[in-house]
Amino acid sequence: MTDAALSAEQSRPVEPALLDDVPGWFWDHDRHLFEWFLARQEKAGVTGDLLEMGAYLGRSAIVIGGHLQPSETFTICDLFDSDAPDDENAAEMSMSYRKSLTRTAFESNYLSFHDKLPEIIQAPTSVLDGGRIPAGAFRFVHIDASHLYEHVVGDLRVARAALQPQGVVALDDYRSAHTPGVAAATWEAVFNHGLTPIVLTEGKFYGTWGDPEPAQRDLLDRVGLAEGCELTVETLNGRRVLRINGTSEGIAPFRPSRHRDRLVVEAARREAEQARAEALRAQQEADVDLAVRRARAAERRRPANVAKRVAGDLLPPVVTSAIRRARRG
Q1: What gap in Å lies between CA 85 and CA 308, rounded to an integer?
Q2: 76, 259, 263, 305: least buried by Cβ within 10 Å?
Q3: Would the pTM count as exceeding 0.85?
Q4: Would you say residue 321 has pLDDT above 80?
């Protein structure tokens, strides 16, 4: 293989067999809640577009795209491998994921699970502000782009304008120690701009600018909620807030990719080939060992060597030592 061909092979995106094969930070409870909110809307006959700001390599986008209804659009806004709009954002990207994030990798991962790509806006999420997307047309928005306070404030402003009255916004990293800007922007929106929490996980905040009570009632009644999810009720400034933790028990795995069956067959073939190679190597080592032992046995059976062993066994040690010294001269 030429250097150019090897480089092309190494840069080709790895085909995922399962959602967990797609790099990213999207834990089971959050995947479950994404599907819970989206499926709940669909069962109620709610239609509306879907939006994700910040997609990384597509793990959460793949889940959202699985709930896209025929009349809806799914929009992704991410810089991917474009330049950041400012120095702080560039530093953030370089520190976290600049080397791994490409649009090609995202598209490859997404198309492993879906037939068609979403609408992709390769740009800073700030381009969505000011009418780039239709107001009041979205039922679900996921914010997971920049962690800088000023950027998250802008993303929340976009989400508020984009969402339907009962639409749901999910915010990533609202409580991580390394993302204080997300925490500040999130709780500022809660206390000053009408955002109401519905439920919290370890990683994400789920809220609405509408009424949180109907969704909270369904969660407390465990309508469609996985068995291992544990609910805790908190009170924040007189309003109820739910928290979810627990285990992943009862959370159904996301459907496999279109590559899964082929990849399973290929993996089984590689394992069989490796097993055959190891068996051949072991047999070769055994053959060499047997040949060495046979050669040593034949050497011991040579008349001169037999005489030496007999002399060594029969003569007194003093005589044997004298003979050896005489042979050495």
Answers
A1: 88
A2: 305
A3: no
A4: no
